[in-house]
Write a structure and sequence with these properties.
Hsp33 domain, single chain, six-stranded mixed sheet, about 35% helix, CBS domain Like, about 290 residues, binds zinc ion, elongated, alpha+beta
Length: about 290
């Protein structure tokens, strides 16, 4: 029942395409990695859910999608990286932000992020990456991405994202949907879609009723002859390793490595995406300092 997966669908006439995802397990996994507060977990869960759906829009397995948010709020920003294999990783710059609920009584994600920018980077293997930055609309992430699609991709979209926390601060539900109009979409289909979207209360209430991503798309594309095109398992996956941590250390200057080699307890390199800790002993750092070029 709690498997994380993504579903893609179209309306019967291909005028509307839609994605939905349930991500409860992988958002809980990220929360455990980062030991993040509920607001930070909610922000990261929303962004990772969106990144998975946008990653599914990529054509090739080597392509990489990054969404970065920079804000002047206490969270300072967050990032998620995904691909079209259903893998995602992410982090918030500050992980322990706690704020009172917003006016609607919800986790105040927009307040924790503040004013700033949203940047989407699509990295196509061997080619120039596609980079686009827009100002944040309200920092709640779903609306920011709706504006991103309109401004940067000239695609009319609606994005719904949600993370619901348990009282013990673990993740109860997480997921989202993205629905996009193809240029050929006629006015009557747009009106049906707008009616459907008005009737959707929230992503988390749909998931909390026990509905699947397929059923969520059934609500989004109601009376539009929804066609499920495929499903895909999604997961949290970081690509860090001890070797990569070592490479990062080796990029330091000889002088810096010599300075680090004075630490008797050695050095820890922490992966920002999954908080894994890679430890290097004083002897290992001394060896790196010796091997480093002047
Ligand atoms: Zn990592």
């Amino acid at each position: 029942m709690y498997k994380d997966y993504l579903v893609r669908a179209t309306s019967g006439n291909n005028e509307i395409r839609a994605f939905a995802v349930t991500t409860r397990n992988l958002v809980e996994e990220a929360r455990i990695h980062h030991n993040s507060s509920p607001i930070c977990t909610a922000a990261l869960g929303r962004l990772m859910s969106a990144a998975l759906m946008m990653g599914d829009m990529l054509k090739n397995e080597e392509d990489v999608l990054t969404i970065q948010i920079e804000g002047d709020g206490r969270m300072r920003g967050l990032a998620a990286v995904s691909n079209n294999k259903g893998e995602v990783r992410g982090y918030t710059r500050v992980k322990d932000v706690i704020l009172p609920p917003n006016a609607q009584g919800h986790l105040n994600v927009g307040g924790a992020i503040g004013k700033g920018t949203l940047t989407v980077i699509r990295d196509f293997n061997m080619k120039e990456p596609y980079v686009s930055t827009i100002p944040l609309h309200n920092g709640e992430i779903a609306e920011d991405l709706t504006y991103y699609f309109a401004q940067s991709e000239q695609t009319a979209s609606s994005v719904g994202l949600g993370v619901l926390m348990n009282k013990d601060n673990t993740v109860k539900q997480a997921g989202g949907f993205i629905v996009q109009l193809m240029p050929s979409c006629p006015e009557e289909s747009i009106q049906i879609l707008e009616r459907n979207l008005r009737n959707i209360t929230s992503v988390t209430s749909i998931l909390d009723e026990g509905k699947t991503p397929e059923e969520m798309l059934g609500l989004v594309l109601k009376d539009l002859d929804p066609q499920i095109l495929g499903t895909k398992e999604v997961k949290f996956k970081c690509n860090c390793s001890r070797e990569k941590a070592e490479q990062i250390l080796m990029m330091s200057t000889k002088k810096d490595l010599e300075e680090l080699s004075k630490k008797e307890d050695g050095v820890e390199v922490v992966c920002e995406f999954c908080s894994s800790v890679y430890k290097f002993s004083q002897d290992e750092i001394k060896q790196m300092a010796k091997d480093a070029l002047d």
